[in-house]
Write a structure and sequence with these properties.
Number of strands: 16
Oligomer: single chain
Structural class: alpha+beta
Radius of gyration: 38 Å
Amino acid sequence: MDPKPIPAFYCCYLLRSKDMGRSFYIGSTPNPRRRLAQHNGKTNGGAFRTRRDIHRPWDMTCIVTGFPSNIAALQFEWAWQNFHTTKKIPHDQRLNKPREAGKRKKSNLSPTNGDEHKKRKKLKRPQLTLSNSLSNLHLLLRVPSFNRWPLAVRFLCSDVYTAWQKYSEENDSKLRDGFRVFCDFDDLAEPNVNPKLPASAIGEKKESPTMTILEKIDATYSGLKLCIAKSLALAAQMRIQHCSICQNLLDPETSMFLVCPSEQCSAAYHMACLARKWTENQQPIGFLLPVSGNCVQCSREHQWIDLVKEMSIRQRGGKDLAKLMKEPRKRKCRVTETSASSKDSSTNETADRPLNDLQDILEDSLMDVDFLVTDANDDPLPDGWQESVNDDDNMSVTSTESGIPSRNASPVQSKRQRQKLEIVIEDSE
């Protein structure tokens, strides 16, 4: 199986019902705008738990981005949904303890060897609320399994961000240094969530207010187009020959090299050299891959995931790379509007003319037809050919030389010629 590039965008999200404020849902998607439309029933798809009309519409309150693959996003989604049983959270740090679903059933005999065995315990999932969703999200971002991932949290609702800040201030454990948190709820009217209000008293359900924010999120590789074009141009011009750190030979065709995303910088590195350079001064020590660092030449800070994503789409992109670098077609200019306006003006002018002017126009057009017919008939035939007209008005062209077959005009051509001749006779009268 061919290795695939790092996906352009993949996120885990937290949904909240606009009408039933106590209903939440956790999922993952490469396109949050399309997925939210599916949950709200506007397009086909969506999870079974979000199909009830009393919960719609749903609002996407926050998203977690920066996953290196879709499998990584699915792992984080499962751990976030099953925070009471996941092994990613140590048992002593677990916030919600698992509970048994009911009374323990009696043991029975095994059908294979007759030995007595116990049935597997079925654990009951705790109710998903805003407080335990944010607290377990904060915990998952601190555990060793996800601590070094280049993740970021983006909040789309102000009240959810306020609850996040409150929990972060009360909790002694902090996230790693440099963890990115974004707020995208400027000028956003928050929904009036009232869990006690019945669904019949809500009235007409409007579109989710977070949909306008999700439209601004770029879920494609278009943000890396300039960097990829610069890397391909430097490799084609043979300007990438040595690593900017170890100064050893760097072959763009065979080696996996990283390029600085800055427009004016032409620094290129071996992947191992840059990873070693960025991790030697970071705390805690002992990690192989960094999270971020500064370029050796331009001294600008960049995220490690951005450099690796650009390299993966450049070397493993295939159809995605060809589609990204393909120049858009230049559309042909349409003159239908001008031509239509000119035709309308001409028809309006002819409609306003008196009867005498219309007769003049008709006579001029018929004279043009007469001119075309006479010019077509006055052309001389080549030497050795003669023209004759039979009684049934079928015109034929025959050859006077021997060995050349005669050619008769088709019935359609003779019919057209008769129509032209009749028009000329009527005009002459």
